[in-house]
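Archive entry. Fields below.
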Amino acid sequence: MTMTERENLLRVINGQEPGWVPRKGIVPYADLDPEQHKPCCVGVMPELFPPKVNAKGGRIDVFGVEYEPTDSTDGMQLPQPNNFILDDITKWRDVIKAPSLEGIDWRAIAEKSVERVDRKESCVQFGGSSGFFQTLVNFMGFTEGLIALQEEPEECMALIDYICDYQETIARNLIGYIKPDIYSMGDDNATARSPFFSIDMYREIFKPFHVRMAKVATELGLPIDMHDCGRCEDFIEDWREYGVKIWNPAQVMNDLVGIKKKYGNDLILTGCWDSSGPAGWPHSTEDLVRQAVRDCIDTFAPGGGFCFWASVYGAKGDDLAKQRAFWVTDEYNKYGRTFYQKQG
Amino acid sequence: MTKIQEIAAAVEAGKSKIIGELVQAALDEGAAPLEILNVGMIDAMSIVGDKFQKEEIFIPEMLVAARAMKKGVEVLQPHLGDAEAATVGKAVVGTVSGDLHDIGKNLVSMMIESAGFEVNDLGVDVALNQFVAAVEGDEKVNVVALSALLTTTMPAMKETVAALNASKARGRFKIMVGGAPITPEFCKEIGADAYAPDAASAAQKAKELAKA
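PREDICTED_STRUCTURE:
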């Protein structure tokens, strides 16, 4: 009997060599897949409250942060510049109010969130925690948020504790009904060149709350997928302490070859794709894009411990980006689906 | 420790709350305002930039140092007299059209200001004609720093550089570019004068460009 995409991904998570290289989507054009493979994994992050949208079409989150979509990101949203809700960290108690969770029908929300997922074909990845650093900078902007971390660490921790209470309550109420295969956490706390802050600051201010959110999963024996962009390899040892098994997107400014050698299949690398590299540039050639796919797979897929994920970003209506996405997807199908068979 | 050394230490440590008093005390003791600026602040920020490049410190430490210097300059400003002598030029800074990312641009803006430049920060999502107007409308501008974080806004950077290169004021300013997807090769390809990989390098590069 043929292995499903789900079973294939679980082999990777369990440290085994899979039948083919699993693919965790190609944003934002996964629908261009000519072979229409089922997703190996479906991300689930239930909405507890009806979405709110501002006049520009940007979402407004539960804390009142307003976001703005841009054409250059094909509609992806960032907090509105110069419209932050918190300018003084010491005043956060007056400004930041988590909505009440009383009366929420957790079972109904959880079941609705997975009703369209074919669980024989796809793993369910439950988004248990969005980033605490990201939340802080969404409230304050990067500049003021980073200054607050330096000048008022105790106030920052008090705010993060409050956000963590909110997120942990939601995660613990939903996880038993969703019954995920993977639990995801994330915090984009690095630039392309280095972490935003020192490892000591991470351990003091953020790690205790990441540990708390991780326990929601590890108490149930679930693997944790950590989302962290940029050069964030300094955090790997800490992640592993609290149960991170998968890192996405493992980006090329990290020593990915060294990391794969060091951790083997104990740390699954998702991505290893040069998001800012020539294959993503507007006028990349087909040969260059296809070669980039093969190079990525050749370098990181041997032995397992790897999921293919490639970002192909384009502005709204950018046909060149769609063309690149098709080449990436098609080459993955031709090369990645048969990679382990070719290896013998 | 002299008062100027105390100022330098306070800038390096990002002590915004005490910097004003230290600058005032140094002035009261008769220290030269330009020496306070150059040795107590600009040199101190240069050390901060070096430590950042070596990853001995990170962005929060750099931000509080830059903010401390800004507070100190507020006290010092009325005593500087001829402002032209105190600055190495004026920089126009901004993130190119279609790109809302601000942290890289903000860091560059702060570090360039800390290197002794007057800065006109145009913000994010800046149209190319705003950049052109900013350089053509101000004869003091000798550096323009453009930021882009997205591969999708690299074309906007290219168009902005082309517009600046076509400007009637082109002879008196240099163009510097940076941001996550930007490389020295891309800088050369689009006709900019310099590439800076990070904010500390941008400050050093701006000083070199201003002297060129």
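CURATOR_NOTE: Chain A has a mean pLDDT of 93.
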